[in-house]
């Protein structure tokens, strides 16, 4: 990731339900850390909002992935670290359509 602010994009995602946020983040934020490491972004949680910062394309991809994972959790599914790693790899490879 470049150090220049001009090379960084920022995306925001609202999370209304704190329980869904907790499930999305994983134990000790392991799911968020996997998204950060896998897509080269930084994810912060402030209030009821996730803020994704990174290269514009990476931030956009991370936002889309987090939206899909949040929908999955909202539907009552449990997320495992393996699920998140698989999803990150699909997004990184440009195959995010397989997550639907």
Compressed to H and E, one letter per element, the order equals EHHEEHH
- Proportion of residues in helical segments: 40-55%
Quote the beta fraction.
Answer: 15-25%
Counted by DSSP, the helix tally is 4
Main beta-sheet strand count, sense and barrel state = 3 strands, antiparallel
Averaged pLDDT: 89
Spans of at least 5 consecutive residues whose pLDDT stays below 50 are: 1-5
Can you tag this structure with a few keywords?
100 residues; 4 helices; 3-stranded antiparallel β-sheet; single chain; alpha+beta; globular; 49% helix
Question: How would you summarize this macromolecular structure in one to three sentences?
Answer:
The protein has 100 residues and is of the alpha+beta class. The chain contains 4 helices and 3 strands; from the N terminus they run βααββαα.
